[in-house]
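in:
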C-alpha cells in the first residue's frame, strides 16, 4: 500500500514538473505574457501575506491577459496558474473580483467592519462577485456585515435552495445565536489563516533567501503570540460558562 502511494505521488510530481516545464517553454515565445508573470512575481515577493488588494491587482492583470488571447496566447491564464502554483480557477476568482470592484471601491469595502469588528475576507468577495446584479450584491454585502456571516453562511444566503444550518436552531435566543455565529466566524478566520500560511510557505520555498527566513520566523512569532492570546480568551470564556452554570443552578 505504501509503495503504491509513493508511486502515485512520484507520478503526480513528475506530471507537475512536466507541466511547469511546458509553461516555462511557452513563456519564452510569449514576451507579453512573460512580462505579466514577472509583474505578478514582483508583487508576490514584496509581501509576506498576499491580501485582498494584492489579489485584486493580480486579478486585474489576469483580466487583461484573458481579454487579449492574440497578444498573450491561448491558455495564457492556465500557464500563469501553473507557474504561480495556483489552480486556474483561483486566478479566475481574482479576475472576477477585479472586474466587480475598482481599486478604490475595494479599499472602501475593506474599510467596513462587521459586528465582530472584522472586515470581509477575500473568500466573501469571491462569493459576492458571483452575483451579477449590483443591487442584490449590495444587499447581500449588507447582510454579511450586519450579521457577521461566515463564507458558508453567505453561500447559503446566495443559494436559498441549500438547507440552512440555522433551521436546526429554531427557537434559540438572540444571545445563543450570537455566540454560535461568533464561533463560526472565528472558525472561518482560522481556515483563512491556514490557507494563507500554506501559500506563504509554498512561495517561500521557491525563493529561500535570508530575508524570507527572517519574515517566516516573524510570522511564526506572531502566531505564537496570537495562540497565547487565544488561550487566554478561552479561559475567559470557560470562566463565563462556569459562572452561568452557577447562576442557572441557583435559579433552579
Amino acid at each position: 500500500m505504501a509503495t503504491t502511494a509513493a508511486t502515485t505521488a512520484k507520478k503526480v510530481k513528475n506530471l507537475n514538473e512536466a507541466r511547469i516545464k511546458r509553461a516555462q517553454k511557452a513563456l519564452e515565445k510569449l514576451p507579453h505574457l512573460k512580462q505579466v508573470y514577472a509583474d505578478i512575481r514582483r508583487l508576490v515577493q514584496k509581501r509576506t501575506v498576499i491580501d485582498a488588494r494584492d489579489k485584486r491587482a493580480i486579478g486585474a492583470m489576469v483580466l487583461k491577459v484573458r481579454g487579449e488571447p492574440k497578444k498573450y496566447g491561448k491558455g495564457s491564464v492556465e500557464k500563469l496558474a501553473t507557474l504561480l502554483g495556483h489552480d486556474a480557477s483561483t486566478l479566475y476568482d481574482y479576475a472576477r473580483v477585479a472586474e466587480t470592484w475598482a481599486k478604490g471601491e475595494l479599499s472602501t469595502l475593506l474599510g467596513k467592519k462587521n459586528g465582530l469588528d472584522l472586515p470581509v475576507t477575500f473568500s466573501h468577495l469571491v462569493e459576492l462577485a458571483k452575483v451579477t446584479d449590483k443591487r442584490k450584491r449590495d444587499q447581500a454585502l449588507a447582510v454579511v456585515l450586519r450579521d457577521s456571516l461566515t463564507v458558508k453562511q453567505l453561500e447559503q444566503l446566495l443559494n436559498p435552495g441549500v438547507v440552512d444550518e440555522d433551521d436546526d436552531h429554531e427557537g434559540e435566543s438572540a444571545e445563543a445565536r450570537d455566540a454560535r455565529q461568533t464561533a463560526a466566524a472565528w472558525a472561518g478566520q482560522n481556515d483563512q489563516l491556514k490557507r494563507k500560511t500554506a501559500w506563504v510557505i509554498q512561495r517561500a520555498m521557491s525563493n529561500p533567501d535570508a530575508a524570507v527566513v527572517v519574515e517566516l520566523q516573524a510570522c511564526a512569532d506572531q502566531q505564537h503570540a496570537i495562540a497565547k492570546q487565544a488561550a487566554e480568551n478561552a479561559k475567559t470564556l470557560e470562566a463565563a460558562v462556569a459562572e452561568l452554570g452557577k447562576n442557572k443552578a441557583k435559579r433552579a
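note: Residues 210-251 form the longest helix (42 residues).
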